[in-house]
């Protein structure tokens, strides 16, 4: 029995040693596998991060491409509108030139017509028109010229031409000779109120 128990103890020791050896080998393998799993997990996470980064970049690129296409479409539309407006501006400028030429022609005809009307009126007054040259000229003088009356250098407003030029004058026409200021005092008072 002692032998049996010794063998049994031996067996147990060898079993314990084997079990311990197996346990240690198991722990080493588990540790190695844990390191491999950790490394693979880290590598997987890095790859996912890079993939997400690339997909984010791809999404950004796609978004930017869409924006660029929209801007290009708007630019083309604006270019078409600008070309149409420039065409309209050219047409309007051509019409303006035509109107200006027509206006110049009408002004020339009107001036010629005014001269013809003035000559016709002169013919009606005097039954003839005098001229000392072969050219046709018409000079129209507006205003009033006094042949008789009181002439004084104090009335002259333009010393170069020796003329009396008044702007917005008030003219009094009276049926008789004014011998006293009392004849026109009431009219002068009304003029002062204006």
From TrEMBL:
Keywords: Coiled coil. It comes from the Eukaryota. InterPro entries: GroEL-like_apical_dom_sf, TMF_DNA-bd. Residues 82-109 form a coiled coil. It holds the Pfam family TMF_DNA_bd. This is Uncharacterized protein. It comes from Prunus dulcis (Almond).
